[in-house]
Specification:
- The chain is of the alpha+beta class.
- About 20% of the residues lie in helices and about 35% in strands.
- The chain has one domain: 4-Layer Sandwich (Deoxyribonuclease I, Chain A), CATH 3.60.10.10.
- It is built from 4 helices and 12 strands; from the N terminus they run E-H-E-H-E-E-E-E-E-H-E-H-E-E-E-E.
- Strands 3-4-2-1-12-11 form a 6-stranded mixed β-sheet. Strands 5-6-7-8-10-9 form a 6-stranded mixed β-sheet, with no helix packed on it.
- The longest helix has 22 residues.
């Protein structure tokens, strides 16, 4: 039996609750990231899935946010999945990332489109947990368009089918899927439709089952989810009350039988 603690958190490029990107000073960005690292230290996750995290972007201080969190959070392993790159005076580079206390044995980034700003995608990683291969998908769907999300969902589902054929035999469980879905589970949208597609891999359960994640000061919607596959049992789940981003993180502790 293997016990894991997972956090998924859209950190909004480190800007906190500042509504406009690029108006936060590098000093304030580092201070906010230190607060996020302190929060992670308190939550004690084994794996952290981050969305909207910058590698080196002018609008967020021109430093590597993932490495900053890795060092200050004490994580030995990290993986970046870059969805957006732009060179020049207004350079930017950001996407999804993973922090882990267990070795990452394989990583792959899938970008949904080719825009240089605002593009979404997902990061896949296999994590070696005590000799067991546990696959994770950290994703970020489009924020404004249901049509875009459904196209992105089709890409994800087709990719999962191919990955299951080539890697499924070594998985301890089907992929744990988490991230910022940008739509609630109650709507006929990508979140609920993904749940239906995942029936091909067994029974998945969506968490959290109560508690809003957005906007963080007074959440009215749940946009951030963790899909738990068959073979995993929930021990504890909570939406963490914090205003270090416009999203609240979700913490899930689970056991793999």
């Amino acid at each position: 039996m293997t016990r894991l603690r997972l956090v998924t958190f859209n950190i909004a490029h480190g800007r906190g609750l500042t509504p406009i990107q690029g108006l936060t000073s590098p000093r304030k960005l580092r201070l906010n990231l230190r607060k996020i690292a302190a929060l992670l230290d308190r939550l004690a996750p084994d794996v952290v899935a981050l969305q909207e995290i910058d590698e080196c972007s002018r609008w967020s201080g021109n430093f590597d946010h993932l490495d900053y969190l890795r060092v200050h959070g004490g994580f030995p392993h990290a993986a970046f999945g870059i969805n957006n790159r732009r060179a020049g005076l207004l350079n930017l580079c950001y996407g999804n990332a993973l922090l882990s206390r267990h070795p990452l044995i394989e990583m792959e980034t899938v970008v949904f489109g080719q825009r240089r700003v605002g593009e979404k995608g997902f990061l896949y990683a296999e994590i070696n947990v005590g000799g067991h291969c546990v696959p994770f998908v950290n994703l970020h769907f489009h924020f404004g368009s249901r049509a875009h999300r459904l196209r992105q969902l089709d890409l994800l589902v087709a990719w999962l089918k191919l990955k299951q054929r080539s890697h499924g035999k070594r998985w301890a469980v089907s992929p744990v899927i988490c991230g910022d879905f940008n739509n609630p589970n109650t709507a006929h949208d990508a979140t609920s439709l993904l749940h239906g597609h995942l029936a091909a891999y067994g029974d998945y359960v969506i968490h959290p089952q109560s508690g809003g994640t957005y906007p963080s000061p007074l959440p009215r919607r749940t946009l951030d989810f963790i899909f738990m596959p068959a073979g995993c049992r929930m021990v504890h789940c909570e939406v963490v009350k914090t205003m270090l981003s416009d999203h609240r993180p979700v913490l899930l502790e689970f056991v793999i039988d």
